[in-house]
Amino acid sequence: MTDQPQQHQQEQGQEERIGVYVCHCGTNIAGVIDVGSVRDFAGEGLKGRGVVLSRDYTFMCSTTGQELIQKDIAEHGLTRVVVAACSPHLHEGTFRTACDRAGLNPYLCELASIREHVAWVHTDHDAATTKAKAIVSGAIERARHSVPLEAIHVPVDAATLVVGGGIAGLQAALEIADAGHEVYLVEREPSVGGHMAQFDKTFPTLDCAACILTPKMAAAGSHPHLHLHTWSEVEKVEGFVGNFTVTVRRKPRYVLEDVCTGCGICIEKCPVVVVDDAYEAGIGYRKAIYMPFPQAVPKLPVLDPDTCTYYLKGKGSCRACEKFCPTEPNSIDFNQTEQRINLRVGNIVLATGFDLFDARRIPQYGYGRLPNVFTNLELERMCNASGPTGGAITLRDGRTAPKSVGIIHCVGSRDRNYNNYCSAICCMQSLKLAHLVRERTGAEVHNFYIDLRTAFKDYDEFYQRVLDEGVHFVRGKVAEVSEVPRGPDEAEGKLYVQVEDTLIGMQRRIPVDMVVLSAGIEPRHDAKQVGQTFGIACSANGWFIEKHAKLDPISTMTEGVFLAGCAQGPKDIPASVSQGAAAAARVLMRIRQGELALEPVRASIDAERCSGCRICNALCPFNAISYDAAGGVSAINSALCQGCGTCVAACPAGAIAGSGFSNEQVLAQIEGLLLTNLEPAEALT
Amino acid sequence: MANDFEPVIIGFTCNWCSYRAADVAGTTRLKYAPNVRLIRLMCSGRIDPTFVLKALADGADGVLITGCHPGDCHYLEQNYKALRRHRLLQRTLAQLGVEPERVHLTWASAAEGAIFAATIDRFVERVRALGPLRWPARPKPLPVAVAPELAEEALP
Amino acid sequence: MKPKFAMYWAASCGGCEIAVLNIDAKILDLDANFDVAFWPAAMDAKYKDLDAMADGSILVTLFNGSIRTAENEHLAKTLRRKSKILVAFGSCANEGCIPGLANLSSRESMLETAYGGPSTENPAQLRPQPTSQVPEGALTLPPVQPVVRTLDQVVEVDYHMPGCPPESHQIAAVVDLLVQVVQGRAELPPKGSVIGAGESTVCDECPRERNVKHLTQLRRIQELGPLDTTLCLLEQGLMCTGPATRSGCDARCPRVGAPCIGCYGVAPEALDQGARMMTAIASAIDAKEPEAIDGILDGIPDPAGTFYKFSLAHSLLRGGRAAHRETETP
Amino acid sequence: MKMLFYPGCSMQRTARPYLDSLMAIRETIGLELEEVADWNCCGATEYMSVHRVPALALVGRNLAIASRQAEGTDTLTAGCSACYLNLAKTDQQMREDPRLAAKVNDALHAGGLSYAAGSLKVRHLLDVVCNDVGYEAVQAKVVRPLHGLRLAPYYGCQVVRPDPDSRWDDREHPTAMDRLLRALGADVVDYPLKTQCCGGHMTVIGPDVAYGLIRRLVHGAATAGADAIVTLCPMCQLNLDAYQIEMNKHYGTSYAIPVLYFTQLMGLAFGKAPAELGIGKEFVPAAPALSRISDRPPAAEAAKKKRRPRAADGLPMPRMG
């Protein structure tokens, strides 16, 4: 509330009894920081600042570590607890809960981050130890000015938003809807189904992707609690956990959804044929009005104004779809415009999936230049009985079956020129494709791999099976795919795969008819903007960042926003389904709880000190500050306040207090960090 | 002198972006100079010039202010307030003879651990090149010449 | 025997003394209830007389002026010893006031400004010397100290009374209180209190109409046309520091169309008056791009002088580097 | 624009046409080249692998005298790929390893010299022409467009790899020279071998290996329908041109693809006389190829009539660009 100098105040207040705990985190902290020295610094050097005991322990977050704190609170009457360990974003909750259990207000517990901010980022042991001491000193001074707070409770809206209708999003949406809660599923494409709908077979059991996916899609389409918004995108998210307001932009289909029966006559009659870059991966065609695939849900066509004659050549031309539409009224509406709808939801599941790595970015593999270089997705569509070749595997001419095929793994993955990470699915996808090529064409197949990663149930068995089927495996990174023979002894008209075979230690040039690039997977091209919309961040590689890489890969740093599927990182279908189900479980837990406890970080105005200058009035983006003209003072609505503290920092009279991050706490922390709380003789060097 | 001088720097971070960037730098084990001691605030909009002046007055050689990128603020646009305060404070500090470079404002998203680490390294070197600030310590509590209780006899 | 009263004038303009005399007939109450032991501005006094007084023998001393010279410091310490109650009286004693702005410069440049420069007529280029030989002997001047300090930076202070000068009605009320205490009819406020001032900021007493603030320009008064007589001056583009200045003056300046310049000092809950005004102004500016922000800030040509006009010596940094450098031991 | 110029020994001898054509066009494109006075050998390709510090010191001397000479520019350009790479690599390694830089400077001190790593920007001539002069500026000076001439752009290895300062769009398939040649009005053929090895000194050490590599490059250009190969490196030019004859003997073939420097083609397009550009000094004569330059731009291919795709068309190709 006030930013008066510190020294005066403490003497007036009751003497605090502070317990300091320094965590080793195994060797994570203790390997770099002299933990004992930090303990003694707090216990001896800061005795005068209210530290009554100082301990170090191997794992403070363990049950034993927590019990240690609880016991000390009871036995030593601690009034403040300072834990020097990891980032508060990881274990603040753990230690606050421990304090709460022992009867100490949880907000009187302070974390000093000496792992992420010291031990893990510094190598000089002395400098790291000195910095750790300063951070502990800052936390102690800050804790002296902490005050007991109560969490703020808000109700949770039982409706949920799921973004993305791939397998992960479908799983999450269905599980929540099955529990009887309303779910809005927003999908950018005209149909749900995602990438899985493009596949032919799924590894390792080789069941048909459509056979196992279609029932889920159909269920989503007809579920009484599940509301589909396909061909739609989330534009804006406002509010906070429990009470989000989401604006969804529905793109025009130019088809009346509630009239169209999905009979398909319009598609049949449409004279415009264009390459289908989306569902058919560029090797098949679609009409200007089209259904992405036969099992699409909802079973509605969508008109593409960029290729439709009506839009290209002016009104009055063509209109075949409209002329032949049998419904009454006519389902075609050329004047449809985009619409915006608002949804109120309590929780959000983000399952926005991935983009395929663009193989054109590796020119030495020739994709886009050499006709018989294909991507895995092109081959996937070729294998599919409903695909452009009716299930036949052919060269680009559409007729000739290849006699030899090279499948290159890790295209765009595990390569510092493109993506450092492993795409997780390419090994198994390449094995699956090798099997399908062998099975359908009998061609010689060479798989070029760096490492074969066939972890998880039944995967390695599948690898053994493919080996037994006579597929050749060459361990080495392919340097180039070239159509130019090296010498007169090499035949023209072949593709030469130049590779170092690291198992036999030589360079090889393997002639093949067809090359398949097993492209990796990448974050969605617009993941960053989507992240901004939902208030979550992307990692350096572009995947959405989960709350904790191991212990909480479902949640995000933004309360109420959960992740499922490849949006969080590369994963296969079983893992995506598991994560979708896990996200659903989290949401259901929230709905079941009915209300949420929020951090009590809020601003408030002392009416006695407020002069009514109205500087703060324009600063709050949540409109939490109002002016009482009669009383001549401003006031803050704590239900609307989000706790950013901007008004606290702006008030010229110092009349606005910010709980949790008060001026006293911050100023005291500065003193602590700069060690002005020590006598000069004790100052650290 | 310059070689032995290890600057002491106070860094202000926001809970949503830059503090998390520091966390990411940690979890990815990036290495950077140990001279910056961080304070977590909820938002860079919480930055009060008082905090910066307090840090300088109490012995910091530099102050690093960090927040979410413009447009990325968790609280929509409060980082612009930090930007404005920083620019005004810079002007005043320049008049007081404090090199504006000592108080640096930078943006870092939660994903930018590497950028955050590199920014710290660069800033530490910049402050090192400027040399110590060594603001004179605040006056110590004063010895009272006499501590006269308001004596009874002084009153009639 | 009446209790003893003293008032001393250190580095200041003398306005505080005038302000005390300006309380009209109330000055007679002071005389009736106190024995004026030492008040160089009002009556003849010698340092040796002061030195001869017993420690704690003065009941109350109003000390105005900042500590600029060794003589100021010596008197501050002496009066502290002799007084039961030491009041830092007026802006100079409390916050350094205008003399405190010298803390932006080194002594050398301050003397150069005072004794040299184009606006000073000093053909012989004389400079004050610590000692000068005259036929009667050696004359000495008290050494000028490198940094102007406030009274509480030199000795412990019992009460603070802000203002440049303190308003007469506030002085009259404090005299009343002292008289009542002496007569046993009232208690003294807690030690360390600010007396003779309000508990909010100047806006609290300002009658002007205020709105949500989106500042798009800042101008000096001569750059603006006729002002609206009822609207907040800040909203009209005038750099008024009322929002960050302690109340108690009854908003004298803004009432008559002059912006507050901050003489009542830092607000009750604040630590640094300049910082509070800077943060308020910067927050209320309506611009996001650095260039646009700078365009508006260009309307404050002298930020340090504007935000710390009265409080520099008592601010967090207490002055500029040029002045502090002189205190460093080489 | 002014910059320092390191010619290197090849340009003064075997690659004299490269130097002559550069001198002929420099004014047209506004390049003011100031030769580094008293430069020494760059150590060529092998020395770096034999004695690293002495090799770096050898190059360091050139950097040191160039930086001392630099006035009004901090750019040092070289036309020869090996010279460029050695200069760039030395600067980079000194930048990244202060201890190594100190060692090199120790050596330079003996000669009263020193070099502050990073003080010069080392650039290949092609980089300067494409990125500093710019395609538009080059195109603006074209008076005799190379219409109808089909060219295979050949970059070789050293300029694009390891590319210490990331100056190229792609290290495997760069396109800077492609764009430059198009700006001159020429047709650029798809030449996927553009950064393959020319054999280097293998022509001397192991001719059979070199012939294989040369054959592939020449054969590839011929298959792609190129009239000429365009290069930016004296070593590449020498191997593909002079040894094309030997290679033909070795394989019993009769390839005759001339190999020219990009500067020679720029000169032609700027209207300079072939002799001024050193054209005619090559082993495989360029005259027959150059006689294909036509006065008129090739007629734009009749816009293909859009029709519905048929099964016989095969599968569509991926869209590029």
Q: What's the CATH class of the largest domain in chain A, please? A: Alpha Beta
Mean pLDDT of chain A: 93
Read across the widest sheet of chain B, the strand sequence of neighbours is: 2-1-3-4
In CATH, the architecture of chain B is 3-Layer(aba) Sandwich
**Total domains of chain A:** 5
Instruction: Look up the CATH topology of chain B.
Output: Rossmann fold
Uncertain residue ranges of chain A: 1-13, 681-685
Per the CATH scheme, the topology name of the largest domain in chain A is FAD/NAD(P)-binding domain
Class inferred from helices and paired strands of chain A: alpha/beta
Largest sheet of chain A: 5 strands, parallel
Descriptive notes:
The complex is a heterotetramer of chains A (685), B (156), C (330) and D (321). Chain A has 5 domains: 6-151 and 661-682, Rossmann fold (3-Layer(aba) Sandwich), CATH 3.40.50; 160-251 and 343-353 and 525-595, FAD/NAD(P)-binding domain; 265-337, no CATH class; 357-522, FAD/NAD(P)-binding domain; 602-658, Alpha-Beta Plaits. Chain A is 28% helix and 23% strand. Chain A is built from 18 helices and 34 strands. In chain A, the strands form 12 sheets. Chain A has a 5-stranded parallel sheet with strand order 10-7-6-18-29. In chain A, strands 20-27-21-22-23 form a 5-stranded parallel sheet. Chain A has a 4-stranded parallel sheet with strand order 2-1-3-4, with helices on both faces. In chain A, helix 2 links the parallel strand 1 (18-23) and strand 2 (51-57). The model of chain A is unreliable at 1-13 and 681-685 (pLDDT under 50). Helices cover 35% and strands 15% of the residues of chain B. Chain B has helices spanning 18-27, 49-57, 78-95, 113-130, and strands at 9-14, 36-41, 62-67, 103-107. In chain B, helix 1 (18-27) packs across helix 4 (113-130). Chain B is globular and about 35 Å long. Chain B has one domain: Rossmann fold, CATH 3.40.50. In chain B, strands 2-1-3-4 form a 4-stranded parallel sheet, sandwiched between helices. Chain C is an alpha/beta fold. Chain C is built from 13 helices and 9 strands. Chain C has helices at residues 15-21, 26-33, 47-52, 70-82, 90-95, 97-100, 107-115, 168-182, 252-255, 273-284, 290-297, 303-307, 321-325, and strands at residues 4-9, 35-38, 58-64, 67-69, 83-89, 131-134, 137-140, 144-149, 159-161. In chain C, a hairpin with a 2-residue loop joins strand 6 and strand 7 (137-140). Chain C is globular. Chain C starts with a strand and ends in a 5-residue tail after the last helix. The model of chain C has no long low-confidence stretch (mean pLDDT 93). Chain D is 43% helix and 9% strand. In chain D, helix 4 (52-69) crosses helix 5 and helix 5 crosses helix 6. Chain D is of the alpha/beta class and 321 residues long. Chain D is built from 14 helices and 8 strands. Chain D folds into 2 domains: 2-125, Glutathione S-transferase Yfyf (Class Pi), Chain A, domain 2; 144-290, Rossmann fold (3-Layer(aba) Sandwich). Classes of the chains: A alpha/beta (685), B alpha/beta (156), C alpha/beta (330), D alpha/beta (321). Chains in contact: A-B, A-C, A-D, B-C. At the A-B interface, helix 5, helix 6, helix 17 and helix 18 of A face helix 1, strand 2, helix 2, helix 3 and helix 4 of B.
